[in-house]
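TEACHING EXERCISE
Course module: macromolecular assemblies
Task: Read the component lines below, then compare them to the predicted structure of the full complex.
Student: A.B.
Group: 4
Components provided:
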Amino acid sequence: MISSLRKWVPPMNKFWIVLSHTFFSNVKQKSFIIMTVIIALLVAVVFNLPNIISLFDKEKVKHVGVVDHSKQLYSSFDQQIRANAAGKVQLIELADEETAKNELEEKKVVGYVVLDLLQDGSLTGSFKAMKVNNSELTSQLEQALNQVQFRLMATNLGLTEQQAAQLFKEVQLEKIPLDKNAKSEEEIVQSTVLVYILLFALYFAMMMFGNAVAMEVAKEKSSRVMEILISSVHPIAQLFGKIVGTALLGIFQFAVFIAVGYISLQFGNKTIDLGDMIVDFSDIPSSTVFYAVLFFILGYLLFSTIAAMLGSLVTRIEELQQMIMPLTLIIVAGFLISMYGLTTPDASYIVVTSFIPVFTPMIMFLRIGLSDPAVWEIVLSIGILIVTIIFTAILSAKVYRGGVLMYGKSASFKDLKKALAVHKDEK
Amino acid sequence: MSLKIEHVTKRYGNFTAVDDLNLEISPSRIFGLLGANGAGKTTTIRMILGILSPTEGKITWNGKEINYDMSNHIGYLPEERGLYPKLTVKDQLIYLGRLRGMGKGQILTELKKWLEKFHVPEYLDKKVEELSKGNQQKIQFIASVIHKPSLLFLDEPFSGLDPVNVELLKNAVIDVAKEGTTIIFSSHRMDQVEEFCEHLCILHKGRPVVHGSLREIKRQFGKKNIEIHTEANLDFLQDKNGVTKLKKTAQGYKVQIAEDEVSQRILKEIADKGFITKFALEEPSLHDIFVEKVGASYE
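Instructor-supplied answer key:
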């Protein structure tokens, strides 16, 4: 009993040596530094996007010519534009299309609108410009013209201003959740974006660091340095030293990104305007961040133990990608399911997959972020995940012990059985 | 203070790699572990290192079973060389040395001493992949002895080296042995084994076919060689009593005989057959013994 226990509790001092070596030899590597710097810059750019955009795009007032054949529409059109898009669009009345074309060629206007009043009192207009790819401008013009027409029609029908206003009043459908815990509409938009970003980071991190562990193992095996390592460190201390060392590497890297993001926020806007979604980063729920970190650690542990096991089975680095392909596909599948689930976090397939351990890190996180799973659901899914991690860790320690000593011509899952057989013989 | 291998058997499924092996290796000796490819040498070494456990039997070092607690006192130069190609010699040895229980300062002092000894102090900050194969081997050797192990395994330590570096490394091995390290030396180069090892064991299909001190092994083998340099045709010796093998060489003949006395009969018989420039009675070489003991079963 004691001897079998000893097998699983290898001397810890060497575990720390492997751990610190894994961490520091990678941190010092050029590729790691370059990658960290590039992503950190990217983070800084994204968080400062509004500032950067306004820096380049000091929105100039766009001058648009108007050729009004009816001679009675311009003033109300101009009035409407001033009300809707003051500072963005400025109308100029022009005598005829000839003048308009000249103005356009001299770049005094970006385009011009030709307006006609039809017999029945409705409006017709055309917008002419060198290019008609600025949809923001055309929709502003269109909207203003519509409003002009409404008012014109209302007057023709003998409606008062007030009656017209009543007629065109839009219905505001307010969405009010009755479940106290449910998220309000604003919160949902806010958390969808946040969950999306964190899911992507989760996916990226699990993929990258799972791969890194497999790579470390395969490199040591293919360079045959493994033979010396295994004679000086217990394989289990070696395996977990490597896994934890790489995890710290990942946490360190993400800490850098988060720090860069945080500092960027102090300088720039605390919100990111994504068209009609506004994300306020000063108001990230701490529980979401907590779960993101928790699920990163658990997901990473699950995938890296499997990756290390697969890495220990290959003889040459080139075989590694093929070997870890199934694992990669599982992570991709989890990510895709979570992307579909962004808009339907309560769908039954999301609920079911959130309990499948390989998908739990991403999908339970999605549910926590966007929906409102019961506490027992969260605890159960994490419980299943932890049990699975313990199982894969034991399995991968067994395979690793045998696998690192096996050199063959091609790596396959048959080797897994062989490696386990080698382990079984060992006391 | 000795390494004892008692009734050790290792089976992989139905395949028996090592079959009831008994060895006792006295301390501060260089012990030769020989065998054809696939004879069970690597398995034996891995079992002694504690990487693999024997299916049956027991291996002890100073009376204790070998496990990872002892790894700080064990050195290993594997046949398949392996270092981290991207790490500098310094970082490499610091890591491997620490894994053998050394402190950083101690490692650097020892490493510099060794690099000096091998006339390559400038390699300290070089990446391993930048070094030539022979020089990588020096670094690999340093990695196996830097922690002053009491038990050291050298698997083909001189392969791929030029003669000057072979001498350099041979002297280093002898120095390490003088300091009291027990060395287990494995090689296919019989001349090197003869040069180093007082005791040896030849494994064949997992069993020791020859085992003991080199002198004793040669004595027991009985057969000796006669080297004859002559232009004359001595093919008739083939059928003489006591001649076990006759081989034509560039200068004349090499005759293997069953006993010392046979040489005198042959000398008399060939005296009038032609001009003889050399006639020498020689000890059997380890090479002959190996070929005979291991090769016999192939015939």
